[in-house]
Specification:
This protein is an alpha/beta fold. It is built from eight helices and eight strands; from the N terminus they run H-H-E-H-H-E-H-H-E-E-E-E-E-H-H-E. Helix 3 packs antiparallel against helix 4 and helix 4 runs parallel beside helix 6. The structure holds S-adenosylmethionine.
Length: about 220
Amino acid sequence: MTQIKSKERVSERGEVFTAEREVNAMLDLVKNECLRPDSRFLEPACGDGNFLSAILKRKLAEINRKYKKCIRDYEKQSIVAVSSLYGIDIMYDNVETCRERLYKIWNEEYTAVCKNDSSDDTREAVRFIIQKNIITGNALTLMCVDKNCNDTNEPIVFSEWTLIGESKMQRSDYTMADLLLYNDTTSNEGNLFALTEEQQEKEGVFLRRYITHYKKVQQYGG
Ligand SMILES: C[S@@+](CC[C@H](N)C(=O)[O-])C[C@H]1O[C@@H](n2cnc3c(N)ncnc32)[C@H](O)[C@@H]1O
């Protein structure tokens, strides 16, 4: 894959993609985090997803190794893996490509492992999660952008996805501004998602919360 799309994009946006060898060398530095299905990664200038794709492949390989004999567990853990990956890029086409890459990697594995037990509801849920997690935005102003890379009035909002019990998925939405605020002011190392529910509610930080079946997360759009 080429590392440069055009000279203009390099000079305007600093767009030079990282080669696979460097991506893997860097991920080796956090090897164990790349194996845990629920370890969260945010790439604030994700490009077309070189890092996020490689992390997803590592997580899915581990999930395959551990859960392939139990289709239901495999399915849930593979959703946890994909829902833990977050990205922002200012260029629409990069975001579209990144979303497609993540979905393709997930779907190929899912279909190969779950075969006749795979379901289109699950595929739709994963498409929705990826669309929520990979955002066209400006990581400096923390606002979503339009197709011309100009800020809109919409803040960047991330959803935390948490499996509850056998089959429920909780989605809690936070603005990125709040996530960064906590990075500066708490001892939780910037992980707002790691605050207890009581702490979160006391601070009133999450915007909204939905709980539904993990195959139906798309029923609450937005
Ligand atoms: C050096 S490239 C890295 C891409 C990817 N992380 C990789 O390693 O392959 C920088 C990326 O940042 C994006 N970018 C530039 N300014 C940005 C901003 N203010 N907010 C979000 N993304 C931005 C560009 O569109 C480009 O995709």
